[in-house]
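Hi V.,

You were right to ask for the full record rather than a summary. Here it is.
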Amino acid sequence: MIEHGLIPYVWLDYDADHAALFGDANGGYAAPIFFEGDTRRLADGSEDVLITMTKDAYKIVTQLKPPGFRRALHELRFLKKELERLASKLKREAEPAPIKIEGAKESQLGINEKQVLMAFAGLVKINLEQALDSGGGLFGDDGARVKGSAKKSKNKALWNPVTLALGLNDVYRVPLAHLTRAFNAHDFLREWTAQWNHTLALLGK
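Predicted structure:
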């Protein structure tokens, strides 16, 4: 706990010999152990607790007369709110980092018709080239076609390979394993592989 920055406390019962330390807390109070020498001793594996400096009941730093207070290790306590904060911190650190999908670069806006046919034409029984040339998005509206990519010319159209592959699986029952193999087999799909795998994970595939 100490190595994570938590401050240990021990309960001090009222002691008339140290009345100034307790002030109005005549039943005792929880004294913090924050002095570096005292906490280092604990961190090094001491067999008991030695307090040479603490704060009094009014939270004023007080140097204790030698040899200070000694207490058993089992008397150490930590604040509940600090324990909860540490537990949350450790839990966050233990969680796997989210998969980072980079934003689309210009070259990653989509793939052209030639690349679509090279990667996927052999996986379907339909004439994929004819389907692409029909001008539609292949799967309704813009579908897998990148919106606005065909404004100047149909030949300039780009296709999102992830959306396209999902459509080929859903509509034409192309096995996901075959589609994954296509992503791994072509250099121009390499930038899309992480997004494809992430999409499959989200779908529980």
